[in-house]
Amino acid sequence: MKKLDENNRACLSLYFLSNDTVVVHTPHDGWGVIDCYETRTESQKNGTLTFLLGKGVDKLDFVCLTHLHYDHYRGMSRLLRHFKGKIDEFWDSGDIDLVRTMRMAFSESTWKKETSELERIYRYVYEWVKKGEMLYKRMGENITLYTENGLKIKSLSPVGNVMLRAKRGRFLNFNAFSAVLMVDYAGVSVLLGGDAESNTWKALLKRKIPLVSNIVKVSHHGSRAGMPPEALRQMFIPEKSFAIVVPLPKHNLPSSRVLFDIESKKVGVIETIDTGIKFDISKNGKYEWAYIR
Ligand SMILES: [Zn+2]
């Protein structure tokens, strides 16, 4: 009987892990992973793969890489390798040229080790896509990525002329490439901001893309550069929405100013601490959250 219940969950669960991974458990018992960051120092529970194994996950509907920053892909090659042949889709915000550009940009820096992780990820992706073992989807403006009876996931960004926005001297700001995802289920909308910064939000506002959401994963760990006030104004439903923030203590994030701005909209802020938090959205549009234990 329990098995039957599990398969007919009639509920969408979103796990916001403290390592910035979002794990999606669909109403029909499918699983997806958005970003991945394995920490070596923190508790093993934080690890994306450890978390999935703990849930008995043996197949992934999708793996999504929002953008090419280390705190969003470290350990992803291990995750891919573990689920080899059992991942339906890879959602990407970049492309192979971007990887080459990035290697150039960081070739003299301490990022060397990090780019080798990225190379491993893309080696798997291209090999498996070529063999037809996995489907490759490039994210972009208003692209539907996933639909399953009532659940819809689409990308709102990368939006517009990303290269132009990303140029910062001889370096590229990869946050300009960050995917922004909108998850809709049972009339409840969830905005996953990735590490998008002001210029992305401004581009979305200019295109009049509706951003209003019940649950918002605040972009770029709640930095001031990440969240312009005009976007904040549009995202939340006062006294109803929740804002989820993934702190990044070594960069002093979230910014107290951003937290103040969000709270002044009468919106509850939840920080992912230790093991993260879980949101359940039921098919009648009710949603509730709890810390993951
Ligand atoms: Zn980040």
Structure description:
- The chain is α/β, with parallel strands linked by helices.
- The chain has a single domain (2-291), classed as Metallo-beta-lactamase, Chain A (4-Layer Sandwich), CATH 3.60.15.10.
- Helices cover 27% and strands 27% of the residues.
- It is built from nine helices and 17 strands.
- The strands form three sheets. It has an eight-stranded mixed β-sheet, with helices on one face.
- Strand 12, helix 7 (198-206) and strand 13 form a beta-alpha-beta unit.
- Helix 3 (76-82) packs parallel to helix 5 (112-130) and helix 4 (96-106) runs antiparallel to helix 5 (112-130).
- The site of zinc ion has 6 residues, from loops.
Give the overall pLDDT as a whole number. 87
CATH superfamily: Ribonuclease Z/Hydroxyacylglutathione hydrolase-like
Return Rg in Å.
18 Å
Strand order of the largest sheet: 6-5-4-3-2-1-16-17
| Dominant shape | globular
Would you give the CATH topology? Answer: Metallo-beta-lactamase, Chain A
Helix content: 25-40%
- In the residues, how many domains can be counted? 1
Classified by CATH, the class is Alpha Beta
Number of strands: 17
Structural class: alpha/beta
Note the beta-strand portion: 25-35%
Q: Which stretches are poorly predicted, pLDDT < 50 over at least 5 residues? A: 1-5
Question: How far is the N terminus from the C terminus?
Answer: 25 Å
Q: What is the annotated CATH architecture?
A: 4-Layer Sandwich
Bound molecules: zinc ion
Biggest sheet layout: 8 strands, mixed
Tally of separate helices: 9
